[in-house]
Design goal:
alpha+beta, hydrolase, 3'-5' RNA exonuclease complex component, SH3_CYT4, five-stranded mixed sheet
């Protein structure tokens, strides 16, 4: 059996380092990380005094007054991922992938006067004080006396409230106001005499931290030896590390800002040993201390590579001498020899392509065949390379990164011209990068030829990487529970029997778990008022937050879906056998009485048991209501036909009563959509394609084959990949069809939950949106009027430029412990509650709600958090714990969303490579492309202008090369150019301009 690579779920040691993901369970007391939490806690109370912000209430329309406070007390659900090897395509994808969200994240948690560390590649971080927000950029004054503009990825650490904001006011007149035009080398900076008070404070802080470092250098420099475990990863906060190293056993000792900076300096000098996730580290301040065994492996192989190149240098300089190879050099030499033999065998069946390998020349079923065995030293070198390629463990560590690139280059296997169908420009063709490393590991038979590397992220903590001992124990306990479930219904006394009520469960074929269903009920005495019920699976009524399944769910955060496999949050047996919606299953129901204009007149939450679920797919629903799918639906299949098809299912036979109920639900959905639109809410077309992967004709999904580190393994045959997509009319959806019923009703259920919790002051993970401060853009009300009146009301798509301006004015998604208006959706509050089988945040909300319902049933009084703040144990989670969960869960939610998107991009790129370069499927000669992003090259040598856009036929994001006159909103005809398998990117080249927004009032397909 193959041994696991140096990629793993962190193995948590529950000493002072608490399980970051399981801390919500009382059996594992929560950690108290020093970061921004203290400021969060004190200011949450200021914001959430009433527990609710009602955007309809005139008395609270000065919400903007609170916004500056909100910025610093919410954790935006954001995505931050950075590529180590900057390539031509990175310029576009850096701007396109995050849709602008990351650029305003700093403004959501920094206040003027906060001191931060600005990361610098290959250099020590620099201290700076946050001055102000300029559009999407944050402006700082640095310790070296200059201003700087930064984004999320450069902020690694923040200390709140170090500098009095009034001291910053004199600096502002000397600072640039347009980040795009500012030139740090050519502009006048703040005069020293003006900046002196701020400069002195920064200098003092730096001097104090240096003094702490010097006084404690022996301890700080030996931090890894003191803190690391031999075989398990320790998850520990910066404050806990500081206390362990500098506290000298004093439990009452707390670190100062200078202490923390000194400790961070020591940890930064050992970046591989002390791992931090830059996507969330600024909020959590959590480090993962790698096991000594893993560090030993990396350092040993690194030394072997150094010895090998020293040997190569000696024989080159002194060819007449018989230079002996050291043991390390011999290990590398033999590994490279074996690698050349294996690569030669691989290339008989597969070509090396850009960031991967091409399809097998052997057609047919997927079969595995073993080849040469790997020695123990081979295994260690492979483990070293996997840490670099699959998990990017060496990011920003130039020494380790260079060792890997040099090793792969030394094989002599990747000279210019070797890679077929290259995706990079000519200047980069000869470079060895991580993408080359992936090709190398595939060609020597370690990694499968079509491996989806996105699932190897250490922070995901998926079972595809090495499991921790804690998770192994939890899985063992879960298996025992499966044999003898210990579930007890805590809401049994209040369950309603829904009897013969039709509960419509609308899901695609193959849905892994059925979380929700909907029903409708007429209100007596009225014609157009109805009760709309959202029935949701109810696992939280049967086990509390201390249960084994709760710990597993906290570990996963949510179910991870990729085209080839699903990683469930809850064990499959629990969801399918006990909680997924079927006949006689328990539900929690979110009910809303909806008026004729789409207004919600009343809300309530109840528990019950359903008896009559009706399963139907969205397409069957549309057909039953007399609608046909509008627009052309494209389909691309490579690798053969599939026997599994949506068309093979017989649609359900619906009664006339059921048809009428569905028509009424459709009518309600239209009213709700119109009401949201009136409030400024928007609906986007889903641009992503549907991608399915099949191991065989009648076998959906793909068996996971772990990296083979004991012997080389080659694979004949390739998976079947199926891509389907209905071409959208544009970017905004201005009408509602039958397939949108579920979307509208689910938003209703989530806003109902927010209203119910907000009225009672219950802390849960509310979702909302907020715009960045000091943004120089048109007010959203003006833009809304323009879009709604001139376009959406006339069933026309607004220009993309106008759409993007409006979306920016609405703000970005945030999470908070009390209601925040969600202007993007167009509701006054929003709490995710409809998917407790696949989202842990939904489970948290359900636990909170059910605790309050039991309290109200027991006392006969409406719960009021403000009045009951002194009473303990009513709610499972305190406001402090919810605020901590936001900081903990939000980055993971976005990481999972990014992983799922990257997985789709991976399989799309695989399919297009096989269709375009290997003729496995017929593709159009040209495609339409809607321009969404322009990059003129940024005056970078060797980089030509590039645009990014959407190919609506397949819903694919593409980069357009060498297009110098493209404008935002253009529609171009393009042809395929190349495919980058490593990054899941498709490049196209322009053919001709089809339409320009300035020439047309409506944007969309011709």
């Amino acid at each position: 059996m193959a041994s696991p690579p140096l990629l793993y779920t962190p193995k948590l040691i529950l000493s002072s380092a608490h399980n970051l993901l399981l801390y919500l369970c009382p059996s594992i007391p929560p950690s108290n990380p020093y970061s921004l939490l203290d400021r969060h806690r004190s200011q949450f109370a200021i914001i959430s005094g009433s527990g609710k912000i009602n955007m309809e209430d005139p008395a609270k329309r000065h919400f903007l007054h609170l916004r500056s406070t909100l910025y610093n007390n919410v954790s935006k659900v954001s995505n931050a991922s950075a590529a180590e090897d900057q390539t031509e395509g990175d310029r576009w994808f850096a701007g396109e992938d995050d849709d602008g969200e990351d650029l305003i994240t700093i403004g959501l948690f920094l206040k003027p006067g906060d001191v931060v560390e600005l990361s610098q590649a290959g250099r020590e971080p620099i201290l700076a004080v946050f001055v102000q927000q300029l559009d999407n950029d944050s402006q700082f004054y640095t310790i070296n006396g200059k201003w700087a503009h930064s984004n999320l990825s450069q902020i690694s650490f923040a200390i709140p409230g170090c500098v009095d904001p009034t001291l910053l006011q004199p600096l502002i007149p000397f600072l640039p106001t347009d980040p795009d035009k500012a030139n740090p080398k050519g502009e006048v900076h703040v005069p020293p005499e003006v900046a002196a008070p701020v400069q002195d404070l920064l200098d003092d802080l730096a001097a104090q931290s240096e003094a702490v470092y010097r006084q404690n250098a022996p301890v700080l420099d030996s931090a890894y030896t003191v803190l690391a475990d031999s075989r398990r990863t320790r998850m520990i906060t910066l404050a806990q590390i500081a206390k362990a190293l500098l506290g000298r056993g004093n439990n009452m000792w707390t670190p100062t800002s200078s202490d923390l900076l000194a400790v961070r300096k020591a940890l930064n000098h050992n970046a591989f040993r002390f791992r931090s996730d830059q996507r969330s580290h600024r909020l959590t301040n959590v480090f993962a201390i790698r096991p000594k065994k893993d560090v030993e492996t990396v350092e040993t192989v690194h030394e072997w590579i150094r010895e090998y190149f020293e040997y190569q240098a000696k024989i080159a300089n002194e060819p007449q001498k018989n230079v002996l190879r050291s043991k390390g050099a011999e290990n590398v030499y033999k590994f490279l020899q074996k690698s050349r033999r294996l690569v030669a065998k691989s290339r008989k069946d597969r070509e090396p392509a850009s960031g991967g390998v091409g399809p097998s020349k052997t057609r047919g079923a997927i079969t595995l065949r073993s080849d040469e065995a790997f020695t123990k030293t081979d295994n260690e070198i492979i483990t070293f390379l996997q840490a670099w390629v699959l998990n990017n463990q060496f990011q920003n560590m130039s020494g380790l990164h260079s060792a890997c690139t040099d090793l792969v280059a030394a094989s002599g296997l990747y000279q210019p011209g070797v890679i077929q169908h290259p995706a990079e420009n000519e200047a980069q063709l000869g470079l060895v990068r991580r993408a080359t490393g992936l090709v190398f590991l595939q060609e020597i038979g370690v990694i499968t030829p079509y491996e989806n590397r996105s699932i190897y992220d250490e922070q995901l903590m998926l079972p595809t990487v090495r499991l921790s001992r804690n998770i192994e124990i939890l899985n063992e306990k879960a298996k025992l529970i499966e044999k003898n479930p210990d579930f007890r219904d805590s809401m049994a006394a209040s369950r309603r029997d829904w009897g013969d009520t039709n509960i419509y469960c609308i899901d695609d074929i193959g849905a892994q778990e059925i979380d929700d269903g909907i029903s409708i009920e007429k209100v007596d005495g009225t014609e157009l008022e109805v009760w709309v019920h959202v029935h949701v699976a109810n696992p939280t009524a049967f086990f509390d937050k201390t249960h084994t399944l709760s710990s597993l769910a906290a570990h996963m955060t949510q179910t991870v879906y990729t085209p080839e496999r699903t990683f469930p949050m809850l064990p499959k047996w629990a969801a399918e056998n006990h909680f997924s919606l079927r006949c006689n299953r328990p539900v929690i129901t979110f009910s809303s009485r909806v008026g004729r204009q789409g207004d919600v007149m009343e809300t309530k939450i109840s528990h019950g048991t359903i008896r009559n679920p009706v399963s139907i797919t969205p397409s069957e629903l549309a057909s039953s209501l007399g609608e046909k799918t509008k627009g052309e639906r494209r389909k691309l299949v490579v690798g053969g036909d599939t026997a599994v098809s949506d068309e093979t299912r017989l649609p359900p036979e619906l009664s006339q009563v059921q048809i009428e109920e569905l028509q009424n639900l459709y009518s309600v959905a239209k009213r709700l959509a119109k009401k949201r639109q009136e409030r400024g809410g928007i609906s986007m077309f889903n641009s992503s394609p549907s991608v399915r992967v099949f191991e065989g004709v009648d076998k959906p999904g793909l068996t996971w084959n772990a990296p083979s580190t004991e012997k080389s393994r080659f694979i004949d045959g390739d998976p079947i990949i199926q891509i389907t997509k209905a071409a959208p009319k544009g970017f905004l959806r201005f009408d509602t069809n039958a397939t949108n019923i579920v979307e509208e009703i689910m938003m209703l259920g989530c806003s109902t939950a927010a209203s119910w919790c907000g009225e009672r002051g219950i802390p849960v993970m509310f979702r909302g949106s907020i715009a960045p401060p000091n943004v120089n853009r048109a007010p959203s009300e003006e833009l809304k009027h323009d879009i709604v009146s001139n376009y959406l009301a006339k069933h026309k798509n607004p220009p993309l430029r106008l759409t993007m301006q409006y979306m920016e004015s609405l703000g970005r998604a945030i999470a908070h412990t009390s209601p925040v208006p969600h202007r993007v959706i167009g509701v006054s509050g929003y709490v995710r509650v409809t998917s407790p089988l696949r989202r842990f945040s939904d489970m948290i909300a359900h636990w909170q709600i059910e605790a309050v319902m039991r309290y109200e049933q027991r006392t006969g009084e409406k719960f009021d958090a403000a009045k009951l703040s002194g009473q303990r144990n009513i709610l499972p989670f305190t406001q402090r714990q919810i605020s901590e969960s936001i900081i903990t869960l939000s980055p993971r939610e976005k990481l999972i969303a990014t992983t799922q998107r990257n997985a789709v991009n991976h399989w799309v790129s695989q399919a297009f490579l096989r269709a375009f370069h290997y003729g496995e499927a017929e593709l159009p000669t040209t495609f339409k492309c809607w321009i969404r992003y322009i990059d003129l090259g940024g005056n970078r040598p060797g980089f030509k202008p590039m645009a990014a856009g959407l190919m609506p036929e397949f819903g694919l994001r593409v980069a357009i090369r060498d297009v110098e006159d493209a404008q935002l909103g253009d529609e171009w005809e393009v042809a395929l150019d190349s495919v980058d398998l490593f990054n899941g990117r498709i490049y196209v080249k322009p053919v001709r301009l089809l339409r320009r927004e300035t020439d047309a009032t409506e944007y969309g397909p011709s």
